[in-house]
């Protein structure tokens, strides 16, 4: 007897990645031999490698999760839906370190390996996680000739009004780092974008093995086995970054997470965080990251914005601000410029060029994911809000943070 | 008309309690407050700077004022920089901001000069580039150390810095300047022979050879592959440069590398015998090529 | 004087400034100022990009004193259309006001410049050659552009709405200039184009950004036939092997261009052209090529990445190319609008060409906004020419024959590049 397990409703191995938000799955009988009734009760459970991820299950779109699930599977081959999610607090550390097993009685009748792929604190990555991330990032850059050039070109002075200084700052950057993360995952699917938690010390980030050590004038140096030594942007080699703080500690003066989350219960108050801690995190350094025209030249920029996004995600979870229809979830002031209103498509993914948009649209459409269908090739501002699919499961964007639950 | 202007501003700026912003501005610009208090207050005013021209001018004045404590002036600068991230809201501020930055680019305080020239250089500002180049050509006019000037000029490949960078490579005022000159020249297609020479010179520092490897990878990748191969086969070569070679070939090598049996054999031996870093890099290399 | 200008390629900047001032002061020599705006002017050889900005800006300011003639107008409009340097945009805006006749056709250029520069406004100084404004007193590109709108007055009626939208972000001291411009635009009667069949964007007659050569007047490509290229895959091919036998569309670019309105947009538009050709089933009959000005740096992998990132189709008939040797010959043959400092481009114009089936230049589109459909149509004409057919159906072009600048009425939205 055999069953087929589909994760994210797909048999493709590329779709076997889950996060805290439930992923739709299916089980169906592919070989009913030995079955003595029209359906067979199959128990689905997770089996984790040591220190690996763990998963939980539920049958329906609502209800509690449990460590295992028993479902009657018809011998006709009709598929039966269920949901799997990562167990909060147990992300994977390697690809396929969780096995989902289906048993009929004690007999294993099917299994797939999955990864609970979560965005983590960059300071606490394992060496293997760090190295995979760095290798993928260096490959995306490909000494200036790779797809990273598009991401650099998306964040310049010319394009900055699309993404800064108005309500769409958070949605745009969420889409931006999601697009980048999906490109990294096309290189190595086990990679997710880590965040730099800038209100806490993060000495493990500023090492030669990771994002480099700055010398006295701000030239960043890497270990000889770090592929970021070949980093190049705008035709120019290397990274310029000079911290105004000791990297053994946190930059002073930034709002803590608690202060940020307390900025206000309405989005239009919360988005003040564009100034502090976001702007202040940028200007805690001299160098490329300290100004809009050059910030995206530094890989640290993306970890900085991952934390900005995490703070937004946490605020959303804290207050239930996922629904674009809810006024408190977004700032729909009448004076919002184009690209900052909920129904607006976001540049560059919309491909629209010419005033009032920038002259070119680097990168084309939003990268697709084998795991989720959202936000689609041309996301609207509204598509960034319900990232976990809390309001509408179809809106799930396929990422989660290690310290932000689902429900 | 005024109401519409205000409404638009509100939609693009924060909604702080006005008293708080006013109070922060008041402390920030009050010379009778302590440096610590003023620095803390200046950290709170980016929003206020975007909201009113009066606030902007007050903070610019602090930055310009040579009689103010340096730390207060630097805090004012940071505050303006933070505000500038909010591009739409900062639109009305930018002209005065850039004008003031140029004004203080030749300030008596070296840190203020360096920070301000850095901001301008990242904007590819012609004034800053002119000053930096002048300082390299005539050291008595230098506003920042040579190595810093070269680093800042590297933000713009069109900054016309190659000639001075070449002359600094051959006659450096210090090691850091030579290093930055080499980094800058890593975008100069005609500099490949210089990097080849440095890469194979075992008397050069590892860092300099690493820069050369990276430069050569960009300018003449086939040359780097050839050199990397030779350096890996050279049993007397330093570990660091062998690791850089392995990393380059792992990231950027292709079919030719995959078919190179002599190289594969050598790397296999390195995996077994060499230092930890070399072993690790060798393993990655062999994994990449399915060995 | 023309000959002596050509011989002065090593002159210092102060000497150059004096030369420009002398030319501006002499009515018989003012036309030579236009010649100084050509990118391939020997005076610009081996100068840094910032130096070029100072030199060109001074020429533009000289045009203010000398009066802007038709011959120089295209350069001024180009700077407004695709310029990103605040000094040059400000100088161009000021120069435009010395043209004898304001025209509705200029308004879209001014608004485009405002869009390009409004978030990067900064003080500029026109007092002395090469001077940078070190305080916010004086002028700025936005101020100059608003003054030009005031000069246009009712001729700018078509873009009034866009101008009003500046009100929310502009600085307090520029509000006065904005109000003045709006008042001038509203005063008097709206000025329409004289001929209803012509759009409001039609440039003054005689001014063209397009040149065409009839079959009998095209120069042979013998001087460059043997030029060897390397493509995005590292394959070598000569000019005659790639460009002879089919019409071609060629653009020039380089990957280190930092003006997104020039090379990045040009190559993106090439991708759009390829899609238009595909839609008409002509992608196998008309070649396309993007040739780099910077062959020493733009190696195959870089070419490939640049093209792919902009949605360019890459195959045997559609290539990104660099010269192995012969860039100088190519430069001379196409009369490329480019100059260099060592091997690095210091300034270039936008240029796109249609070659006939014998590799001869049949049409050139330069400087300001060129329309992809118009370029495709020209290439199709070459195809018909090759097969001996008469000029037949081509897709509709912009109403003005493609000499247009963009405006709200005739805005052309290129189709989206997609990720590979």
Question: Which key features would you list for this structure?
Answer:
heterotrimer; A: 407 residues; alpha+beta; Immunoglobulin-like; di-copper center containing domain from catechol oxidase; five-stranded mixed sheet; four-stranded antiparallel sheet; 7 helices; 15 strands; 19% helix; 19% strand; globular; B: 291 residues; mainly alpha; 20 helices; 72% helix; 0% strand; elongated; disordered N terminus
What's the SSE blueprint?
The complex is a heterotrimer of chains A (407), B (291) and C (420).
Chain A: E1 2-7, E2 17-18, E3 23-31, E4 39-48, E5 55-58, E6 68-74, E7 80-86, E8 98-104, E9 107-116, H1 127-141, H2 148-154, H3 169-187, E10 213-214, E11 220-221, E12 232-233, E13 236-237, E14 241-243, H4 257-261, H5 267-270, H6 275-282, E15 285-287, H7 300-319
Parallel strand pairs in A: 2-9
Antiparallel strand pairs in A: 1-3, 3-7, 4-6, 4-8, 5-7, 8-9, 10-11, 12-13, 14-15
Chain B: H1 2-12, H2 18-28, H3 35-42, H4 46-51, H5 53-64, H6 70-84, H7 87-90, H8 94-104, H9 110-122, H10 126-137, H11 146-153, H12 162-170, H13 175-185, H14 192-199, H15 206-219, H16 221-233, H17 239-252, H18 255-258, H19 261-273, H20 276-288
Helix pairs in contact in B: 2-3, 3-6, 5-6, 5-8, 8-9, 9-10, 10-11, 11-13, 12-13, 13-15, 14-15, 15-16, 15-17, 16-17, 17-20, 19-20
Chain C: H1 2-6, H2 13-25, H3 31-35, H4 49-66, H5 70-82, H6 86-96, H7 107-117, H8 141-152, H9 160-164, H10 172-186, E1 210-212, E2 228-231, E3 236-238, H11 239-243, E4 248-253, H12 260-279, E5 287-292, H13 300-308, E6 318-323, H14 327-334, E7 338-341, E8 344-348, E9 351-355, E10 361-366, H15 372-387
Parallel strand pairs in C: 4-5, 5-6
Antiparallel strand pairs in C: 1-10, 2-3, 2-6, 4-9, 7-8, 9-10
Helix pairs in contact in C: 2-4, 4-6, 5-6, 5-7, 6-8, 7-8, 8-10, 12-15
């Amino acid at each position: 007897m055999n069953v087929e397990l589909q994760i994210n409703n797909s048999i493709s191995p590329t779709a076997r990645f889950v996060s805290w938000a439930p992923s739709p799955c299916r089980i169906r009988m592919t070989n009913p031999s030995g079955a003595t009734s029209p359906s067979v009760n199959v128990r689905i459970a997770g089996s984790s490698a040591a220190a690996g991820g763990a998963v939980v299950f539920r049958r329906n779109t609502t209800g509690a999760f449990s460590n295992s699930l028993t479902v009657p599977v018809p011998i006709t081959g009709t598929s039966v839906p269920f949901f799997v999610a990562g167990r909060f607090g147990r992300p994977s550390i390697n690809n396929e370190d969780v096995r989902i097993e289906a048993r009929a009685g004690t007999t294993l009748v099917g299994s797939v390996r999955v990864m609970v792929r979560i965005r983590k604190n960059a300071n606490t990555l394992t060496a293997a996680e760090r190295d995979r991330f760095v290798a993928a990032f260096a490959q995306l850059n490909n000494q200036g000739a790779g797809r990273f050039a598009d991401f650099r070109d998306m964040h310049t002075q010319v394009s900055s009004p699309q993404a800064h200084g108005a309500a769409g700052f958070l949605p745009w950057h969420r889409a931006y780092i999601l697009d980048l993360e999906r490109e990294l995952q096309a290189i190595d699917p086990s990679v997710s974008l880590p965040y730099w938690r800038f209100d806490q010390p993060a000495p493990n980030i500023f090492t030669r093995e990771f994002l480099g050590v700055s010398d006295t004038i701000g030239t960043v140096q890497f270990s000889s086995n770090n592929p970021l030594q070949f980093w190049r942007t705008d035709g120019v080699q290397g990274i310029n970054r000079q911290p105004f703080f000791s990297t053994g500690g946190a930059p002073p003066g930034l709002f803590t997470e608690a202060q940020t989350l307390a900025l206000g219960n309405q989005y239009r108050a919360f988005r003040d965080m564009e100034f502090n801690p976001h702007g202040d995190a940028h200007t805690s350094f001299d160098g490329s990251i300290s100004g809009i025209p050059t910030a995206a030249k530094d890989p640290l920029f993306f970890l900085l914005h991952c934390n900005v996004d995490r703070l937004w995600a946490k605020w959303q979870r804290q207050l239930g601000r996922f629904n674009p229809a809810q006024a408190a979830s977004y700032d729909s002031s009448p004076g919002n410029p184009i690209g900052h209103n909920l129904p607006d498509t976001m540049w560059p993914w919309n491909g629209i060029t010419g005033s009032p948009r920038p002259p070119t649209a680097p990168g084309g459409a939003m990268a697709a994911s084998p795991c989720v269908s959202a936000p689609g090739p041309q996301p609207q501002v509204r598509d960034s809000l319900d990232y976990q699919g809390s309001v509408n499961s179809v809106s799930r964007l396929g990422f989660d943070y290690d310290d932000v639950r689902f429900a | 008309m005024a109401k519409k202007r205000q409404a638009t501003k509100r939609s693009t700026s924060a909604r702080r309690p006005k008293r708080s912003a006013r109070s922060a501005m008041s402390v920030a610009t009050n010379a009778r407050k302590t440096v610590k208090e003023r620095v803390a207050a200046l950290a709170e005013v980016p929003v206020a700077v975007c909201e009113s021209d009066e606030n902007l001018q007050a903070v610019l004045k602090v930055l310009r004022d040579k009689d103010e404590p340096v730390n207060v002036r630097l805090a004012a600068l940071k505050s303006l920089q933070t505000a500038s991230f909010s591009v739409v809201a900062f639109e009305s501020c930018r002209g005065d901001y850039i004008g003031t930055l140029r004004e203080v680019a030749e300030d008596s305080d070296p840190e203020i000069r360096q920070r301000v020239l850095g901001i301008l250089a990242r904007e590819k500002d012609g004034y800053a580039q002119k000053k930096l180049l002048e300082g390299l050509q005539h050291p008595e006019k230098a506003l920042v150390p040579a190595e810093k000037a070269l680093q800042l000029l590297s933000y713009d490949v069109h900054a016309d810095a190659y000639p001075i960078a070449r002359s600094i490579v051959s006659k450096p005022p210090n090691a850091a300047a030579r290093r930055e000159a080499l980094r800058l020249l890593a975008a100069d297609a005609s500099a490949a022979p210089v990097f080849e020479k440095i890469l194979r010179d075992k008397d050069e520092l590892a860092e300099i050879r690493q820069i050369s490897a990276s430069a050569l990878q960009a300018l003449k990748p086939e040359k780097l592959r050839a050199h990397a191969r030779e350096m890996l086969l050279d049993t007397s070569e330093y570990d660091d440069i062998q690791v850089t070679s392995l990393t380059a070939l792992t990231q950027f090598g292709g079919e030719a590398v995959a078919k190179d049996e002599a190289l594969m054999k050598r790397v296999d031996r390195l995996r077994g015998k060499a230092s930890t870093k070399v072993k690790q890099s060798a393993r990655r290399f062999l994994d990449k090529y399915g060995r | 004087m023309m000959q002596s200008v050509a011989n002065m390629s090593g002159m210092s900047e102060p000497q150059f400034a004096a030369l420009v001032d002398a030319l501006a002061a002499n009515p018989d020599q003012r036309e030579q100022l236009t010649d100084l705006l050509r990118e391939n002017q020997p005076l610009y050889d081996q100068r840094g990009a910032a130096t070029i900005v100072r030199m060109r800006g001074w020429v533009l300011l000289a045009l203010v004193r000398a009066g802007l003639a038709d011959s120089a107008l295209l350069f001024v409009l180009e700077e407004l259309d695709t310029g990103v340097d605040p000094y040059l945009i400000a100088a161009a805006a000021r120069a435009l006001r010395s043209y004898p006749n304001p025209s509705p056709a200029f308004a879209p250029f001014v608004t485009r410049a405002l869009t390009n520069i409004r978030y990067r406004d900064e003080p500029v100084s026109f007092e002395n050659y090469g001077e940078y404004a070190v305080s916010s007193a004086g002028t700025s590109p936005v101020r100059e552009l608003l003054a030009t709108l005031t000069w246009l007055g009712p001729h700018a009626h078509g873009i009034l709405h866009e101008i009003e939208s500046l009100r929310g972000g502009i600085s307090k001291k520029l509000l006065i200039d904005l109000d003045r411009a709006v008042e001038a635009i509203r005063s008097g009667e709206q000025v329409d184009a004289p001929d209803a069949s012509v759009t409001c964007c039609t440039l003054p007659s005689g001014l063209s950004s397009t040149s065409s050569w009839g079959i009998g007047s095209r120069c042979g490509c013998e001087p460059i036939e043997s030029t060897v290229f390397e493509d995005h895959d590292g394959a070598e091919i000569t000019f005659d092997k790639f460009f002879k036998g089919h019409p071609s569309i060629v653009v020039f670019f380089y990957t280190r261009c930092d003006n997104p309105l020039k090379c990045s947009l040009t190559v993106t538009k090439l991708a759009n052209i390829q899609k238009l050709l595909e839609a008409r089933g002509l992608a196998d009959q008309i070649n396309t090529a993007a040739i780099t000005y910077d062959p020493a740096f733009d190696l195959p992998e870089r070419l490939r990445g640049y093209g792919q990132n902009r949605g360019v189709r890459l195959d045997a008939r559609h290539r990104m190319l660099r010269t192995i040797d012969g860039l100088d010959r190519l430069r001379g043959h196409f009369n490329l609008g480019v100059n260099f400092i060592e091997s690095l481009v210091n300034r270039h114009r936008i240029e796109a060409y249609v070659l006939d089936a014998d590799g001869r230049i049949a049409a050139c589109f330069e400087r300001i906004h060129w329309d992809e459909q118009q370029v495709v149509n020209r290439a199709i004409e070459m195809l018909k020419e090759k097969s001996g057919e008469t000029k037949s159906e081509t897709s509709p072009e912009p109403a003005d024959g493609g000499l247009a600048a963009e405006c709200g009425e005739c805005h052309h939205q290129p189709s989206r590049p997609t990720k590979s």
